[in-house]
Each structure stands twice: as structure tokens, then as C-alpha cells.
Design a protein that fits this description.
alpha/beta; Nucleotidyltransferase, domain 5; 2 domains; five-stranded mixed beta sheet; 42% helix; globular; binds 5'-O-[(R)-(carboxyoxy)(hydroxy)phosphoryl]adenosine; binds zinc ion
Amino acid sequence: MIRRVLAVETSCDDTSVAVVEADGRVLACLMAGQDLHHARFGGIVPEIASRNHTHHLLPLIEETLARAGMTLADVDGFAVTSRPGLIGALLVGLVTVKTLSLTTGKPFIGVNHLEGHLMAPFLKDENYSAPQGFDFPYVALAVSGGHTTLYRVDGFGKYRILGRTLDDAAGEAFDKFAKRAGLGFPGGARVDRLSTVGDSKRFDFPRAMLRDERDDMSFSGLKTSGARLIEELMPHDRDELKKQADEFLARGSKDPVPGLLADLCASFQEAVVDVLCARLFRAALRENVSRVVLTGGVAANSRLRARVETWSRQNAIIPAIPPLRFCTDNAAMIGFAGIQRLNMGEISPQALRPEPKAPLDKERTGGV
Ligand code: KG4
Ligand code: ZN
């Protein structure tokens, strides 16, 4: 029986390490972000991500153990994201955990990153635990910079993909739009903040595929429409937009003020949120589940959270929306999923390789 693991997540640009217990309790979870390293390139540069992981990982492991008041002797095994993700980035975490496993003689398990996101609602710490009555089955929307997928989750290892984006992830759409609007990268959270003072009805952005019977989504039309609208602004409006963006950034992305930029952000955000909510709500009713989950970086979006909470209340549905620290890429969710697998008797071999692509519904689950 594995009671506690040290978990490592390096699938993209954030390095994260956690100590997690079998009931979901997070004893420590630390993260070293890299946004500043990638911002000037306007996107994530895989080589830079890998190099930063190698710099951050070992000190972060030491620091996380120290925060949990533990040493390697106090954990029973290790969990690491081994799929999907950037191959070089995954490799850093995987090689490190394999080494820890070899030197301590304790087992390790490679975890699918998406399984971690889907299990995030079960994590708990002094400030969060899942709402009363939360359990399987549920419909989950995993929405981030890399993925936008709707799942039906019937139990641990029992995942069915209901629908997914056919092109861009919702977070990617937010980020590309933010960049065009002069808000830098990654700009999803800035769009969110500006939207709080914007008029979401001022600009009419497309909501693709809403009448489609399938649960799939599309955001590339919206992305293009956002880019075109900004390009086609009259010169004085374009100057005004740039001025408002520069001033907002100069204020440290705080204290948003109403105006063209805020209206653009609010209108764009409403279109993304409309599509995500339409898919999630319809699927939850059709699948006849009484719980929904929002997870992934875009689950931080205040408008999306509010819409899901309100709708859930009106429809007697229990919404589980983990706090940002458990929604974005973090090692705690990997540790929780890993412990479940280890306790089902699954152990990864030293020969385990990282996999850049790994759809969750293709996962085999030992013991289930
Ligand atoms: O899960 P995450 O940290 O990393 C990925 O796996 O992608 O998600 C990051 C994404 C970025 O696209 C970021 O712009 C978006 O989540 N994001 C937001 C908000 N906070 C983060 N998008 C909209 N509103 C937010 N408040
Ligand atoms: Zn993720």
C-alpha cells in the first residue's frame, strides 16, 4: 500500500513537484514557472522549456520535501508525467524520477497528464476540498493552452472522450487574441481581468458549431475573427488600443479601466465562454450526471467559473472547480493519479519512454 508519493510534472513549461497522500491530501506543491523566459518569443520554445526544467527540478524537489517536513525516506514511491507533452520537457522529469526510483529502491509510475487534470477535484489542502457529494460519474471539461476536451468520467481509469476542439485550444485562442491586442503572452488572465469592466455585447464574435450535434468545438474561426477585427480598426482606434494595453501592463495588469480594449476582451471572452458552456451543459444533461468538473488553466477564467456555478445551481448539479493552483499544470494532480495506479498494482519499468501524444481514452488501467 502506497500512502505517499513525491510527484514531478514537467510536460510543458512549468516545473512542479508535490508530496501527495493517497486520500488526495497535498502536503506540499511547488511550481517554478517560465512565463518570463518564453514571453519575448510569444509562445513556448521547447528547448528553453527543457533547459529550465533541468535547472529548476532538483532544487524544487529539495524545497518541496522540506516544505512537507520530509525526506525521501518518508515517501513510498514516485509519480511523474510521462505523456503527453513536449518530448524534451517530459524527459527531464522522467529521467530524474527514474533515478530517484533506482537509488531509493522505491517504485515509480508514469502518469498521463490529462488523467491528472481530470482527478484534480479530489485534491485537498487547508483551503480546498471537493464540494460535498462530489464523486464519480461526472462530465469534465479540461481546458487549457494545450487542450480543450470534454470527458465523461465514470471512475478512475474510466474515461470517454465526448468531444474536443477540432483546431485550437481555448487557451491558445485567448493567448493569440491577447497578443494581438498588445497584452503579451500568455494573456488569458489579462483578458479575463479587463473583461470585468468591458461591454461583452459591443463586438459580435462567431460561436462556431453551436448547432452541431457532436460535442466537438472549434476556436480557429474566432481567433481569426479577433485578429481581423483588431487589424481593421481605424488608425486612431488602433493607437487607442495600444495606449490602453501599454497602460494596463504598466500598472502590472491591475486596475482595468473601461474602454475599447476592455470591450474587445469582454466580447471575445464571452464568445469562448459561450461555446465552452454550451458544450459542457448540454453534455451534462444528456449524460444524465449530477456533477461537472472544470479543470485546466482556462478554468481560472472568472466568467467561465461564474457561468458554470450559476447554471449548476439552477440545474441541481454539483460543480467541482478546483482552485487555480490545482487547475493549472501541477504535480499534485499527477501524484494523486499516480498513487491510485500504484495501489492498483501498476509499476512502470525503467524502460518507460516519454510519449508526446497519448489520448486518455486509450489508457489501459492495471487492476481495473
Ligand atoms: O493548464 P495551463 O497552466 O497550461 C497548459 O497546459 O496549457 O493553462 C495555461 C492557459 C494559457 O493559455 C492561459 O492564457 C490560460 O490558461 N489562462 C486563462 C486564464 N488564466 C490562465 N485563460 C482565460 N482566463 C484566465 N483567467
Ligand atoms: Zn495541462
